[in-house]
Amino acid sequence: MNPDDYFEVIAADLDRFAEAPDNVLLEIVTADGACMWLVATDEEPEWTGDDLTDREAAARICEGCTVRRQCLELEFRTAGDETVGVWGALSEEDRRAAYAAWRARRRGGRSS
Q: Which residues form the 4Fe-4S Wbl-type domain (predicted)?
């Protein structure tokens, strides 16, 4: 799959959250996000201290998370492409590419 197609697929998948209020998305992500254990506990993951790339950290933190897409939708709405770190299991570079596709869809550039 061409990378642009991949990011378009991600953006299209987020369409199902287009009408969800920000506060609902925030509640879902903070209640169910796999990353929230980093905030809620004092435990460090086994791999802490490993020299990980952004993509590797995203894969480890978000693996199996059930709210990755809600997380990404919320981040796109609140910060756009100006964020750092891992959101929705995407690295910064991948997230910026997906954001461009998401923004185009929300501005009416959706394909049927």
A: 34-97
The token duo for 37 is 């254990």
The angle, 0 to 180 degrees and rounded to 10, between the axes of the packed helices 54-62 and 92-104 is 80
Nearest residue to 20 via CA among 92, 54, 69, 79: 69
For 1-112, list the strands marked E by DSSP: none
The answer, as to whether pTM is greater than 0.90, is no
49: left (phi over 0), alpha (psi -120 to 50) or beta: left
- Above pLDDT 70, what percent of the chain? 82
**Whole-angstrom Cα distance, residue 90 to residue 72?**
8
- 3-state SS class at 11: helix
Q: Give the residue carrying structure tokens 């998948």.
A: 13
CB 74 within 8 A of CB 27: no
Evaluate if residue 112 carries a pLDDT over 50: no
